[in-house]
Amino acid sequence: MAGKPKLYYFDGRGKMESIRWLLAAAGVEFEEKFVETKEQLEKLVKDGDLLFHQLPMVEIDGMKMVQTRAILSYIAGKYNLYGKDLKERALIDMYVEGITDLMQMVMMLPFSPAEAKAKNLASIEEKATKRYFPVFEKVLKQHGQDFLVGNRFSWADVQLLEVILAVEEKIPAVLSGFPQLQAFKTKMSNVPTIKKFLQPGSARKPPPDDNYVATVMSIFNLN
Amino acid sequence: MSGKPRLHYVNARGRMEPIRWLLAAAGVEVYGDLLFQQVPMVEIDGMKMVQTRAILSYIAGKYNLYGKDLKERALIDMYVEGLADLNELITSNFFQPADKKEEHLATVMDKATTRYFPVYEKVLKGHGQDFLVGNKLSRADVQLLEIILLVEESKPDILAKFPLLQSFKAKTSNIPNIKKFLQPGSQRKLPIQEKDIPRLMQIFH
């Protein structure tokens, strides 16, 4: 039945957050069903709702979609956030994959053992400022446009803003050497759908706290 | 400059292998395997593409191996991502400490037979067609065959309980481009050998 997309995940960022961002940026309203216990997850598996027994899962357009990248690609394609042709798509894919690698590091940080946290944070800072941000700084400088690809708002822009904000939460001055990215951050934050998502009361989830970590650990028996 | 795509990687399987498979299935000739200490890079159509997934998506789109519309694409993407997860589990076995390898491999084989292969067996049973999506060869089929053969290298009887995957394997292996790729002398790479591991560890870890 067509209706709003329904997101199945924990009440926290994790792998679903990028999907929330993209739907919000596309101006698509969605519902959320929070999985809070192992039993609830097991029920979804037993009911055959999770193709590979894993979350995230999004009910959208009659499909129970799993695999974060597949879901994001579908949303991007459906809402015209994937470039105008195969080559623009290729650029967007490359940028998004790079950003995902960095995002993954940030996502895993709260789950690091206490003695590894400082080291992992330093690693995030290094990768962000030496490997990833310079790429996007250069792209924006070279074409002088507001958006990363094709002079048009795309999935890559949404994901870049998301990762910038996520890294800044841990390393507030991380954009200090990147004037283009600073301007990009300001402009993207003011795109109306994104501006709305950044306001309190939206579906955006807060940074992971101990409670979130404990919930995830207990659902996956990682204690 | 020749229009053939040029692959840059180490002379081994790793993250480039799915790309070699897909280009072969599409009947695209490649040349050059240069030794670079980097993640895969493919020079193709005037771009220097990086990121395995981006490269595979581009090839699939260009050579019509990505379904006919957004929904078929969505199915293909889900299937392909599941296979990528299984692939990751298998290749991570090579980098396990020696005393953990056997146990890890057993876990991986268990996941293959309880989480992943049943999905594809069920898909094929559900529509009774030769290919996973849209009754037409797609990147999902190429990737599934690649993974089946990879898993079989560790456990030759892994498809014992999956009759449809067995016939899928036979049919897909006989597609001319793929049959050619499976023959000696193609650009398909050999399994990672024990002796390669120190070199690969040095490059990637």
TrEMBL record, chain A:
Pfam families: GST_C_3 (PF14497), GST_N (PF02798)
Name by which UniProt lists this protein: glutathione transferase
Domain of life where this protein originates: Eukaryota
Keywords of the record: Transferase
All residue ranges annotated as the GST C-terminal domain in the record: 85-209
PROSITE patterns membership: GST_CTER (PS50405), GST_NTER (PS50404)
Organism: Anser cygnoides (Swan goose)
Transmembrane segments: none
From TrEMBL, chain B:
Organism classification: Eukaryota, Metazoa, Chordata, Craniata, Vertebrata
Domain of life: Eukaryota
Pfam families, sorted: GST_C_3, GST_N
Keyword Transferase appears in the UniProt entry: yes
Residues of the GST N-terminal domain: 3-67
Record's protein name: glutathione transferase
Keywords: Transferase
Organism whose genome encodes this protein: Anser cygnoides
GO BP term, example: glutathione metabolic process
GO MF terms, alphabetically ordered: glutathione transferase activity
